[in-house]
Write a structure and sequence with these properties.
This is Aqualysin-1. InterPro entries: Peptidase_S8/S53_dom, Peptidase_S8/S53_dom_sf, Peptidase_S8_subtilisin-rel. One of its GO terms (molecular function) is serine-type endopeptidase activity. It is a single chain. By secondary structure, the chain is an alpha/beta fold. It has two domains: 74 residues, no CATH class; 262 residues, Peptidase S8/S53 domain (Rossmann fold, 3-Layer(aba) Sandwich). The chain is built from 13 helices and 13 strands. The protein has a five-stranded parallel beta sheet with strand order 3-4-2-5-6, sandwiched between helices. The chain has a five-stranded mixed beta sheet with strand order 8-7-9-13-12. A hairpin with a 7-residue loop joins strand 10 and strand 11. The longest helix has 18 residues. The chain is globular.
């Protein structure tokens, strides 16, 4: 019995160490950004899965081939599975086609990555885009002028010291409410930028209180209804009681706060559809490879979190394809679905929305559960 309790405790600690997902870890973005990612000069000219597996530092895994010249490399021996997890952008220089993995099309994969998948496009075509619903993201500073959010973002700074723009919050905002990447592409977005520091949860609470104050100045139909935080708060944290009080205060004001603890407790996890497959077909989704050794229960429900293209910080019109995503990407996805649901039925509670997501789930080809947005929205419409 003691052994079982120990295993459960360790599992919980690991989940909170992950936080909002793979990318929530504080990566010290120091030095020249061009040095982040996989350095072509430090890997062999003939690249294999084994070569890429050795590139496993945080900066290498996160930034991958972004802004890298791979034109002199032979990637033809790399598997689609391996290369699908490598990030890249439009500045990446690729070798000729016969030196790319068979079936790998960077331009197509890049464009496909913007699609939230699971037939969200069909829902959007019906005019269900989150229009009339105000949503918020609390995360690190970002390029607030990006084309993905022009005309639809209100940007607030929280805390005395602001750090340089960070990919994490920009990706989360893109997935929640981006014009081309977003689940709730028609919603109005409020972004609260908090310093990238070890005390980030303290700033989250300050941001939540600021949202409550902002809402006091907004009309009933304009108030921020839900906020997405791609991070978790450990029950062992020194400020956990204060966090709970902040959440209660937010809920009392009519604000829903979505963060990793909340969705973990309801048995949600993350995965993705390899870009070589149809991402509108739930059968093609798999549990994230990052979780392969975590023994995730088959009762957990997959939310898309891998293989996405989002806005990038290097300019107002740059985008980045991310191979590995994380629970960080799944949290704004669920938040966006809530915005769609409220457009259809504004009287639902968030608990009712989660219940509907669970009730309407479907299965992948591996027999794992996955959300079914189309069935979810149709169920709410009825």
């Amino acid at each position: 019995m003691k052994k079982k309790i120990l295993i459960i405790t360790i599992t919980i600690v690991i989940l909170f160490a992950i936080g909002g997902g793979i990318f929530v870890k504080n990566v010290m973005e120091e030095g020249d950004p061009k040095n982040w990612g996989i350095n072509p000069s430090k890997i062999s000219d003939i690249v294999t899965d084994r070569v890429l597996q050795k590139c496993n530092s945080d900066l290498e895994r996160i930034y991958g081939f972004q802004d890298k010249d791979m034109s002199k490399k032979d990637l033809s021996q790399v598997s689609l599975d391996a290369i699908s997890n490598i990030s890249f952008d439009k500045s990446t220089k690729w070798p000729e086609k016969n030196k790319l993995p068979g079936g790998y099309d960077p331009n197509k994969w890049f464009d496909t990555g913007k699609d939230p998948g699971l037939n969200l496009s069909k829902i959007h075509e019906k005019g269900i885009t989150g229009k009339g619903i105000s949503v918020a993201v609390i995360d690190k500073p970002i390029r607030s002028t990006h084309d993905e959010f022009k005309g639809k973002m209100n940007y607030y700074k929280v805390g005395d010291h602001q750090t340089s723009p960070h990919f994490h919050g920009l990706a989360c905002a893109s997935i929640l409410a981006g014009k081309t990447c977003g689940v709730a592409s028609g919603s109005k977005l409020y972004y609260f930028a908090t310093p990238d520091s070890k005390d980030r949860q303290e700033y989250y609470m300050e941001a939540i209180d600021k949202i409550i104050d902002v809402n006091k100045s907004l009309s009933k139909n304009e108030k921020i209804r839900i906020v997405s935080i791609s991070d978790g708060v450990s029950k062992r944290a020194k400020y956990y009681d204060k966090w709970q009080q902040t959440i209660k205060r937010a809920n009392s004001s009519g604000l829903t706060v979505v963060y990793s603890n909340l969705l973990y407790d309801r048995k949600f996890t993350w995965g993705g559809c390899n870009p070589s497959k149809d991402r509108n077909n739930p059968l093609n989704y798999e549990l994230s490879k990052y979780l392969n050794e975590r023994k995730v229960s088959k009762s957990n429900i997959i939310v898309p979190g891998d293989f996405r293209t989002t806005a990038g910080n290097s300019s107002d019109n740059t985008y980045v394809y991310w191979g590995e995503g994380g629970f960080s990407w799944a949290i704004p996805y669920v938040t966006g679905l809530a915005a769609l649901a409220w457009q259809v039925n504004p009287n639902l509670t968030f608990d009712q929305i989660l219940d509907k997501l669970i009730e309407t789930k479907t299965t992948t080809s591996e027999g794992r559960y996955i959300i079914n947005p189309e069935k979810f929205i149709n169920s709410i419409a009825k």
